[in-house]
Amino acid sequence: MNTEEIVTAYRELLEEVSTEADRLGDLYKVHMVCRKGCSDCCSDISLLPLEWFALNEAHKQKPSPNTPEQAAMQPADRSDDRTVEAAAGKCPLLHEDSCTLYPFRPLICRTHGLPLLYLIEEYDSKGQRTGTEEPEWQISWCDLNFTEVTEDNMEEIFDPEDVLNMEEWNTRLKELNRAFLDTPEGRDFNGENRIPIAEILS
Ligand code: SF4
Questions:
Q1: What percent of the chain has pLDDT over 70?
Q2: For a tag on the chain, would you pick the N or C end, based on fewer CB atoms within 10 A?
Q3: What letters, b where the CB count within 10 A reaches 16 and e where it falls short, cover 138-150?
Q4: Which numbered atom of ligand 1 lies nearest the CA of 112?
Q5: Is 91 touching ligand 1 by the criterion CB < 6 Å?
Q6: Using a 6 Å cutoff on CB, does residue 93 contact ligand 1?
Q7: What are the angstrom distances between the C-alpha of 172 and each of 14, 45, 98, 166, 168?
Q8: Closest C-alpha among 185, 168, 170, 169 to residue 54
Q9: Mind listing the pLDDT tens digit for each residue in 66-121?
C-alpha cells in the first residue's frame, strides 16, 4: 500500500471506532454525562507516526481563517493559550474546551468516556513478555460517567460485548502504522517512537 491508501485505511478504521463508540454511547446513555465543553480527557498525548502524520495533514489543510473570530480558533496562532494548556497538561489542539481538529481526532480520542477493554501484559526493555502468568483482561471506565460502577459490580453493568475492545483496534492501528513506516513519508519518522501532538503546532 502507498501512503495515500494507508491513510485512507486509517481513516476508515477511525470511522469504525466512532460507529461502535456511538452505539455504546447510546447503550449507556443513562450513565453518560459527556458533552461538548467537557475536555477532561483531552490531555497532552503523543501519537504513533501514522496518527501524527494524518493529523498533521489535516492541520495543514485547514482553510485559512476569514475573520478574527476564526483566526482565534486556529491553534497555530494561539501560542499564549498553548503555553497555558501545555502547563496544565492539556492537549494543545483544544480551544475553549473544544477540539479544533475534531473530525480528524485520533483513535484514543474517539473512545473517551466509554468502558474500555485492555489486555494487561508486562514487557521488558527488549519487548519480551515478562512473567509466566496468563495476561489478564481489564476494563477501565470514566468515573464522571459511571459513578456507580466499582470493581465489585462492574461485571453486572458491562457486558463483554458492550465495551470497546482496545486490543482489537490497537492491533489494527499498529499494523497500519508498520506499513506506513515503510513508505517514503514514514521513513522520515524515528521508527515506532511516539510524537507529541504539540509538535504539529511547532
Ligand atoms: S486531539 Fe482533540 S479530542 Fe484528542 S485530546 Fe486533543 S483536543 Fe482532545
A1: 84
A2: C
A3: ebebbeebbeebe
A4: 3
A5: yes
A6: yes
A7: 11, 20, 28, 10, 6
A8: 185
A9: 555 555 555 544 555 555 555 568 999 999 889 999 999 999 999 999 999 998 87
